Amino acid sequence: MDKVTHVVPKLHLTDHGKSASPRMEYPPPFPDSQLENLVSDIKDWQITHGSLLKLVNTDQDSTVLTHAVGACLFPTLFPKEQFEQALGLQKVYNKLYARVAEDEEWLYDTLKDDEFARVLWDIHKEVKKEGYVQDHSLGIFRSDYMLDANPAGQVKLKQVEFNTISCAGGIHSNLISDMHRHLQRRGAYVAAGLDDTTASINISASHLPPSHTLSTITSGLVSAHTLYGPPKSPDAEQTCILFIVQPRNFNIADERPIEYALWDQNIPVFRVELSPEILAHTSLTPTRELLYHPPSRAAAAPLEVSVVYLRAGFEAEEYSGPGCGDAREARVRVELSRAVKCPSILSHLTTFKKVQQALAVPGVLQRFLPSSGEAFNISSTFAQLYPMDASAAGLEARELAMDEEVSEGYVLKPSLEGGGHNVYGSAIPAFLACTPEEEWSRYILMSKIVSPTVQNLLMSPQGLYKGPVISELGVFGVCLWRRSGEAEGRVEMIGNTEPCCWSFKTKSKGVDEMSVVKGYGCFDSPALVDNDVFMACCRDDEQG
Ligand code: ADP
Ligand code: MG
């Protein structure tokens, strides 16, 4: 497991400024005392605003411990053009993935060889046999990008993956972006240590776009709740939103604020764990309303569930091992119900990396996006993607993947979520050598996105890191659609929100994975600059 390796236990200023012409430095060189103040301010801000992970193992009757989530000390430089490009694509991506979700035939064909997809597909088949009673779906998506530097010295936006279930990190990122903007306004980023041999960027408010993830996700859930309308069952007096969550959840700070924001709008929200809690505390009426029976109000009337928001159920292990039958049964009950799902089981299936790869096959995008302009703009963000099956393209990929040198430029990915499943570069041939060949088709092969590096300081429970870093931008998309045989692509878009929220994560160069909660990267926000300024600040030396 790759961890942040360059830990600097105590901060030391490096000695710059021996050259004749001013050297461009970002972050600006800070005297130790100023940096120590910044670290202290960030710690206080994080504790005060819930920028925290819960240490579930220390949860006691009367207290609980937390630690601050990994954070960047300075906002990281990112080119404005590619940031705007990513935001500008999101509504088309939302439409694309809604249409893919409603194209059962294509989806089945694409995913039929994937083991975990089969578990979900069987749930879909079982529900379809009974007949679906809800045509609407809510999408809370996140499209992830990195910058790719090509040999001509240009940077291009390339998609890492597209997520359609339990898209996390939005609230954490929102907080870190608020924090960076707070630090900027109180002058914490004005360098005291610049002399005439060093130039830097004076970060102003206009470099730091606000992110509105909390309000955007919340309004998506509100719109689905409103669309559902009043309770249909005579047994319920009120509707509510149900969050399906993982047990022993250390990342509640990324979920609870959404719940509180909904309560603030007088919408009752309850959390149930996948899966015993769902089975114990919900029931289906004969007309398929999903009723929630809050354990704390045993004698009171049940509430009718308007929207089910999944922050669980995306990992294959949740459906295998002890209790796996329960998770499946819980998912069937939810899917059978009249509640609007976020996501529906078909929309969940579109998150598979196999779908991302299949969409990149020449001509396939046009099936979903007949407008050539839209298809072109979307495909411009695709890296090279190959299947690993026995097709001609798959055999070509197998050759690339098995070559000791060539494999360095690729990432091998199974269709699994949550981080830690990919195989990177030169590790691929050895990995394949000990994986039975009949299992290779579960993977896709993707060309490595080689990001230009800039400099920053990262603070996480592993320590302080100073040096070259790489960022990943995740644009959130919120949309509501109705399945309709008559509409183009079988999808009538009811709401497709202007994207104004994103997550931004940064890791040290040399770390392959990114998950912040698993300790690889840090939450961050972008400092938007012109391309030439960004390129002028790209450096990958360790000393900074
Ligand atoms: P997961 O579902 O585990 O999040 P991802 O596809 O997002 O899977 O991969 C995890 C991380 O690995 C990404 O956040 C990114 O940092 C890195 N990564 C994934 N694909 C590539 C790629 N093609 N090039 C470079 N880095 C990649
Ligand atoms: Mg990812």
TrEMBL record:
Gene3D superfamilies: 3.30.1490.50, 3.30.1490.80, ATP-grasp fold, B domain (3.30.470.20), Glutathione synthase, substrate-binding domain superfamily, eukaryotic (3.40.50.1760), Glutathione Synthetase, Chain A, domain 3 (1.10.1080.10)
Highest taxon listed in the record's lineage: Eukaryota
Catalytic EC class: ligase
Keywords recorded for this protein, A-Z: ATP-binding, Glutathione biosynthesis, Ligase, Magnesium, Metal-binding, Nucleotide-binding
Protein residues bound to ATP: 353, 413-422, 424, 446-449, 472, 507, 513
Residues the record lists as binding Mg(2+): 417
GO CC annotation: cytosol
Note on cofactor: Binds 1 Mg(2+) ion per subunit.
SUPFAM superfamilies found in the cross-reference section: Glutathione synthetase ATP-binding domain-like, PreATP-grasp domain
Catalyzed chemical reaction(s): gamma-L-glutamyl-L-cysteine + glycine + ATP = glutathione + ADP + phosphate + H(+)
GO molecular-function term, one example from the UniProt record: ATP binding
Pfam name, any one: GSH_synthase
Co-factor requirement: Mg(2+)
Metabolic or biological pathway, per its Swiss-Prot or TrEMBL entry: Sulfur metabolism; glutathione biosynthesis; glutathione from L-cysteine and L-glutamate: step 2/2
Domain Glutathione synthase substrate-binding as annotated: residue spans: 239-349
Family the entry assigns: Belongs to the eukaryotic GSH synthase family.
Name listed for the protein in its UniProt record: Glutathione synthetase
Organism: Lachnellula occidentalis
Upper classification of the organism: Eukaryota, Fungi, Dikarya, Ascomycota, Pezizomycotina
